[in-house]
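Supplementary notes (optional reading)

For those who missed the lab, this is the record we used. Protein: V-type proton ATPase subunit F. Length: 122 residues.
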Amino acid sequence: MSHSAVKGKLIAVIGDEDTCTGFLLGGIGELNKKREPNFLVVDKNTSRHDIEEAFRGFLKRDDIAIILINQTIAEEIRYVIDSHDQPIPAVLEIPSKDSPYDSSKDSILRRAKGMFSAEDMR
């Protein structure tokens, strides 16, 4: 049995310092065998390229089941998120302290809504 199957799958976080700190205090922080963390703290000096690389890296890891990303950061790499069409890892956009969640910007939610008719929602 593989190591990740024994311990379970991880949640990855791409977010501002407050978001990452909150999740790390909640116990989600892990390093894989290559000593790569399952989170990226994004600040004003973090390049779009670094965010995109972290996101793509999390997509490739077999130990990650969910990627949480602040919606404001997701907006910067929307084209990459929109191209992700696999159910795992699931990508969930979350609000940050400074920016409330806007469901109209969430491409994954829009895609999910398109799978159901109004009749299904009753």
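If you only remember one thing from this example: The domain at 7-121 is CATH 3.40.50.10580 (Rossmann fold).
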